[in-house]
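Researcher: Predict the fold of TATA-box binding protein-like protein.
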Amino acid sequence: MPRKKKPRPTIPEPLESTAEIITRLTTTNGIPAIQLPKIHNIVASFFSGQRIDVRTVAQYARNVEKKPRFNGVIMRGRNPKYTCLLFSSGACNIMGVRTLADGKLAARKVARGLQKIGYPVARVENWYPVNFVASAETGMVIRIPGLYRKHGLSPYVRYMPEHFSGLIYEYLGNEEGTRGKVTVIVFSNGKLMFLGARYEQHIFYAFEHIYPIIAEFAIRSRQGSKVE
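Model: Structure tokens for TATA-box binding protein-like protein follow.
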């Protein structure tokens, strides 16, 4: 019996392009482009079109690793550099790419690799990104305890310095959902980490939201000048 494809999650699309948000950040808000977030990793999911025997894939496919306690196989590739987790159900997760185009190309390479070892109908179905990971260097030194004292009553802000040095801020976007939900980790050296975004624009919406909040608690820039 053929496997029923998992439906793609319904998430409202952003109303602006990434370029439009960046223009607003750099011109209207006056934020230097060097401080804007940079995408480091995109995780995407797709269905290969059929069930697969992971032992066969591990034995005959190239650049594949089978770990004893993992119920799938790990396939790695170059140009673009990627890692793919393949499961017997036919579900595949691509990670390690930095652009959507590279993610789609990596998925096609995985499908071609399966075709070469006896899965002629292998293809890329229902491809979609599930997580964007990015970071930003704001160049500010931030008073994390002061930031937490002001915003710590919110259930969406967490700070436990005895366990982790960063403050975790859950950005919830807007009611319509077009700005997404993103986890932002704020470090005292001004570095920001963004996790869980479903669209690239969500990263920049979260950055636009958090930047004035952390700027209020900036002691100075890392170059030593006092922040106005």
